Each structure stands twice: as C-alpha cells, then as structure tokens.
Amino acid sequence: MEVTSLREPKMADRVATVLRRMFIRGEIAEGAMLPPESELMERFGVSRPTLREAFRVLESESLIQVERGVRGGARVTRPRRETLARYAGLILEYEGVTLRDVFDARVLLETPMVVQLATDRDPKIIAELEQIVEREAELAGAGESPHELIDFHTAIARLSGNKTLQIVSDMLRHIIEKAHRSLPSIEGPRAQQAVRRSTKTHRMLLDYIKAGDATAAGELWERHLKKVEEFVLSRSDLSTVVDLLE
C-alpha cells in the first residue's frame, strides 16, 4: 500500500490534547486559572489565534470556562454530565431513538443493579439506603412535591459500584428528568399520592434488599420503572430526545 501524504493533527487540537491530559491527570487542579495567554503561547510555540482555538475546543467539552475582562482568563472546570447527556441526545436523535427507547434502556440498566444489591446485602449500602428512605418519608410527610424528593435512582446507580454504569445511568436520568419537567405540574392530593406511592416502592425495595430476595427486588423495580415510563409518555406530546434537550 502506497501512502502519498499524511496530515498532522491541527496544532490547536494538539494543544487542546496536552491541556486535556493535564486536567484529567490532576496536574492542573479544578478551579485553577490557566497561565496568561502570552505564557501559554511561549510554552507551546503557537500563535494567539491557535491558542484561542484550542480554548474553544476545551470550552465546548466543559473542561474550561473562559472569563472575560481585565482579570479574565481560562479557568479549569469539571466536565458536566449534562454536556454528555446533550451530546448523547443528539446522537440518539440522529439514530431515530424515541423517549420510550430511553426509558426501556433505564429498565435494562437499573434492574440488574438492584438484583446485585439484594444479592450482596452489603450492610453499609443497606444503611445508606435506609437513611435515604427515611428522609424521603419525612419529605412526603411534609407534603413536598415529587421533584424535591431525594433521588433514590441516583443512589442505586452510585451504590452499584460500577463507575461506567453510573455515568451511563446519570446520562439517562438527566434525559428522563427533562421529560418529567416537560409535563404539566401536579399539585394537591394527586401529587401527594404520587409521593406516597414512590416512597412506598422504595421502602419495599429496601426490604427485599435486606432480605436478600434478589428476584422480588428485580421484579418490583422493573414494574416500578415501567409504570413511571407509561405515566410520563401518556401525558407528553414529546416523542424524541432532542425535543427535550433543545
């Protein structure tokens, strides 16, 4: 095979790659300001337009925040999962993915998590879930709305112990929260009933986890997630992911 020419990556991309690696490795701490442009230009041997193009790349990835003004500059920030959710949402839209598909993916992702938690019966995890459920019960008793309840789903993903699954779960949860917020608000007795129903389900799941009944835990959580899916989709005119993320 004859190769006639190879194109090197753009210098701005190479600068962005070096800085990105430094952020991820912790060589430049979150919240720190990058050195002045003149110093970075000298270090990398690049022009100001090239450096600013690298900044635009990193800013689009939520790795820096460029602050304007006399005391401005580029501040290192932590990548936001909302950014991941937005980009993922665009890809899902190009693939023709519906909201139902997203909800179904959450069922497939979270159900094995609760099965594993019930199988392991880790006392520390059970104690943490107990605190969350008790706090939810307090909020429900105080008449708080569903959106103000502690996110039990987030805890399930976090306590599963798999960071990759947690990130994917957070991405789906962000999209699903958008779907919930697209619905007309529910108030009064109906809202309180929804809160009580959710807290009751969370308590039942915790009891199954304590008992080590993995089968019952998985079946309960799958039913719960599917009911939530039907509740949202039956009340929303939105059908695709990008409808929510724009």
UniProtKB/TrEMBL annotation:
Pfam families: FCD, GntR. Signal peptide: none annotated. Keywords: DNA-binding, Transcription, Transcription regulation. The keyword DNA-binding applies. Residues 9-79 form the HTH gntR-type domain. SMART domains: FCD, HTH_GNTR. PROSITE patterns: HTH_GNTR. GO terms for molecular function: DNA binding; DNA-binding transcription factor activity. It comes from the Bacteria. InterPro entries: GntR_C, TF_FadR/GntR_C, Tscrpt_reg_HTH_GntR, WH-like_DNA-bd_sf, WH_DNA-bd_sf. The keyword DNA-binding applies. This is HTH-type transcriptional repressor NanR. It comes from Mycolicibacterium vanbaalenii (Mycobacterium vanbaalenii). The lineage of its organism: Bacteria, Bacillati, Actinomycetota, Actinomycetes, Mycobacteriales.
